[in-house]
Design brief:
InterPro entries: Cell_Envelope_Assoc, DUF218, Rossmann-like_a/b/a_fold. Helix content is 50%, strand content 12%. With 210 residues, the chain is of the alpha/beta class. It has one domain (35-199): HUPs (Rossmann fold), CATH 3.40.50.620. The chain has a 5-stranded parallel beta sheet with strand order 5-4-1-6-7. Strands 2-3 form a two-stranded antiparallel ribbon. The chain starts with a helix and ends in an 11-residue tail after the last helix.
Length: 210
């Protein structure tokens, strides 16, 4: 009897391991697939998810996102670019405000078409802050600009927050430099996505992405 029970437990554990592995692989494949899509429907706003900034200067990752958002704006995807992201203790500004300054300066985007939402220390907080602004302004749709591997989780969070969201990931910057870099970003983003779907909470995914 004990042998039978032990065998059953071993089979159940084995089945659970296989199921978990299949879930991880299928999610990673979905992240990879979403990363290669580029949706640009006419929307209420282009939303640039923040990344690091240094004394008001966007990091290379953030700069790549901002440049891509400017191109979408120039193509008429949306009349407004929303930058989002808070600041850390000691920062002279926020990610959102640094993004606006970059787009208004080097990008040449009129300030009237820029909106900073200086809130959020991770993607979930930022998306929820943007959703509140959308509600206040009567907006419903957005094109999200972030790194490719972050697109699927960002879309899901935005949809859960009540935004009709699609993504147009940037194709430049450190996150897409080499296949090895892409592999590690997907490897780190996959559990972050699974944890969000299971708990509704945010954890850090790829480097520079919360």
């Amino acid at each position: 009897m004990r042998v039978r029970i032990g065998s059953l437990v071993a089979r159940l554990v084995g089945a659970a391991v296989v199921a978990s592995l299949l879930l991880f692989v299928s999610t990673a494949a979905a992240i990879w697939w979403t990363a290669r899509q580029d949706s640009r429907p006419v929307s209420d706003a282009i939303v640039v998810l923040g990344s690091a900034q240094y004394n008001g200067e966007p990091s290379s990752i953030f700069e790549a996102r901002l440049d891509h958002a400017r191109k979408l704006y120039e193509e008429g995807v949306a009349p407004v670019i929303v930058t989002v992201g808070g600041g850390a203790d000691g920062d002279v500004t926020t990610e959102a405000e640094a993004g606006v300054e970059y787009l208004a300066g080097e990008g040449g985007v009129p300030r009237g078409d820029l909106l900073a939402v200086p809130e959020g220390s991770d993607t979930l907080e930022s998306v929820r802050a943007v959703a509140r602004v959308f509600d206040e302004r009567g907006w419903g749709s957005a094109v999200l600009v972030t790194d490719p591997w972050h697109a699927m989780r960002s879309e899901r969070m935005a949809e859960d927050a009540g935004i009709d969201a699609e993504s147009s990931p940037t194709r430049q910057g450190p996150a897409v430099q080499t296949r090895t870099t892409q592999f590690w970003y997907i490897l780190r983003e996959t559990p972050a996505y699974l944890v969000y779907r299971a708990t509704g909470e945010s954890v850090s995914g790829a480097p520079g992405i919360g």
